[in-house]
Amino acid sequence: MILDRAKPILRSGGGLAGCALLALAVSLSPAQADETQPGVFATVGAQLGYEDNAWRTADDEQSSTTASFSPRLGWIGFFSKHSLLVTYAGDYGMYFDDHDLDYADHAFKGDLQLDLAPKLKTELTGGYKLGHDAPAADRYSAIRQMQKWDEKDFDGKVTYGRRAAKAQVSVEGGYLERRYDDNIDGPTLAQWTTAAARRAVRSQLLSGVGSIGAGLINSAFPLPAVTIPGSPTARDHDASRLVGTFFWNLGPKTQLLAEVTRYDQNYLHHFFDVNYQLDSSEWRYQLGATWKATAKTTGEFRIGYFKRDMEAEQLADSSGLTYQLRLNWQPKTYSTVSLLLQRATDVTWNPQYFDIAGLSTPLGTGGTSTDSTGYFIGTTAGLSWSHELTRRWTLDTGLQYDKDEYRASSARQDDVYNFHFGIEHKLGRRTRVGLRYAYSERNSDLAGADYSANSYMLTLSTDLR
Fold first, then answer.
1. I want to staple 462 with a disulfide (CB 3.0 to 4.6 A). Which of 70, 121, 230, 431 is the partner?
2. Is the pTM of this model over 0.90?
């Protein structure tokens, strides 16, 4: 599979376990458990690991040995032409050298598929997650703090027309709520909001008064310039999407498509002034195709135009080219090459550090409090290869490059590189063991956002069904 920029699985450091570069891991991939048969299934595993830059810092890198436990449980039932899938996935991690990085993530999901009529199919999904953002682990963040959140999401999709018919139409909608814990040391969200309100009142009172009046107002409304971390709850948001797709079948293995997408993102807390908001909406218009040209090649391609409108006057709107290509090629049944190319936008909230008086010092280097806040246009190129050397040995490697161009109060560009290499051995029908190395690097125009990190792992996975 193409490398996904997920949170680092292992954060490791010194100690004998770290020096041994050992990791005991389990893959939570659904491929491990048979989800085509009714009943209960499960995968489970444990991890030990070593990583040389747990906090993703440019300097003063800290390593840590880690351990984690990762169960996945599920049940699937079939009712005539309908099915219901319910799953739970857990991810519990401990950092022996820095317990501030410990986490306990939970994900619950339900997926109901209804075959209502010969030409009408419906899919409904819903989920609840308790998760975290590891330090600087997401695409844009330079915040070196553990940020915990909970998330609810609901999706629905209706498809009219069978695959064998000449045409199909699908409509898909989704809604997501994410709420962050206010778990960073410093002023609370309420204190932050109160300080912003006092600043606004103070500015109004200062307008049109002399130096004596200004002195009295400053005494009545003191606002000390104390540098504080931005509250993670500033990133609380709701998001919704609506997608309409028309498919035209050229044959049993090829479809042309026309697609229109609407995205909306709304943030609950607005700071700096009432006009500065990260709320945004985006329209996306695309044409494309899906195909299974041969038993060896499958793919999906979309290309089109996007237009993103930002609510804040300080943040410029944007429009331009968007595309996505996903291609899988199997020159042999035991060898798969995957390619990913895409260009898209996403909203960012990266307050870094600012003072209550409004004098910004992001990462202690100067600049504005809205540096890299707004949105970015991301371009991705990824290539991966999975190859069965024998019936028991499998090699897996991948490389991905991301270029993120920010549209904010100051210019910023990030170049992000991810690489992994692994080899896996089947101990039996249900158990596998392997070695894995991963490297991640970010080069940024934003001071202090650079980092590089190496991880080394010994992996073990098993299916309990």
1. 431
2. no
